[in-house]
Design a protein that fits this description.
Layout: E1 8-10, E2 16-18, E3 26-32, H1 41-52, E4 57-63, H2 75-86, H3 105-113, E5 129-132, E6 138-142, H4 152-158
Parallel strand pairs: 3-4
Antiparallel strand pairs: 1-2, 3-5, 5-6
Length: about 160
C-alpha cells in the first residue's frame, strides 16, 4: 500500500467502501468510542465537518472497542448514538481494531506514516486523530486530548 486511497474499509452499514472516493480531499481520520471521556469530541468533529466539508474536508470515524471497552455496541447502536446525541453526519465505518494482530491495515499504515510521541506507533486511546492532505499523505497525528477545534487552523492550511 502506498497511500490512504489504496485501502477499502467497511462502512457502518456493512458495505465495502474504497477510500479512493476521497481522493483530492483533506481527511481527518479518528478512532471513536461512545462511552469515553472524549466522546463529546463528536460535537467538535461534526462542527469542523459542517464548516469545511464544502471546501473539501472529510471526517472519517472508525469506532473501536480496544480502550476500556468503551464502544461495546454494534454498528446500528453506534450510528444511532452518534446521530441522536451529536448529530453526526460525517461518514462512520464499522468497528475495527487499531492495535494488535487484528489491527485494520489502514491503521497500520497511519501509525507507520506518523508515529506518536517518542516514536511509539501504538494508538494510545480513543479519539486519536490523523490529518491527511489532498494527495493522501499523512501530515499530522493528534493525541486524544487535542480538541477538534484546535486542529481547525491546520485543516485550513490544507484546504
Amino acid at each position: 500500500m502506498t497511500g490512504v486511497y489504496d485501502f477499502s474499509m467497511t462502512d457502518i452499514h456493512g458495505k465495502p467502501q474504497s477510500l479512493a472516493q476521497y481522493k483530492n480531499k483533506v481527511l481527518l481520520i479518528v478512532n471513536t468510542a461512545s462511552q469515553c471521556g472524549f466522546t463529546p469530541q463528536y460535537k467538535g468533529l461534526e462542527t469542523l465537518y459542517k464548516k469545511m466539508h464544502a471546501r473539501g474536508l472529510e471526517v472519517l470515524g472508525f469506532p473501536c472497542n480496544q480502550f476500556g471497552a468503551q464502544e461495546p455496541g454494534g454498528e446500528e447502536e453506534i450510528e444511532s448514538f452518534c446521530e441522536v446525541n451529536y448529530g453526526v453526519t460525517f461518514p462512520m465505518f464499522a468497528k475495527i481494531d487499531v492495535n494488535g494482530k487484528n489491527a485494520a491495515p489502514l491503521y497500520e499504515y497511519l501509525k507507520d506514516a506518523k508515529p506518536g510521541l517518542l516514536g511509539s506507533e501504538a494508538i494510545k486511546w480513543n479519539f486519536t486523530k490523523f490529518l491527511v492532505d489532498r494527495k493522501g499523505k499523512v501530515v499530522e497525528r493528534y493525541a486524544p486530548k487535542v480538541e477538534p477545534e484546535a486542529i481547525a487552523d491546520d485543516i485550513e492550511k490544507l484546504l
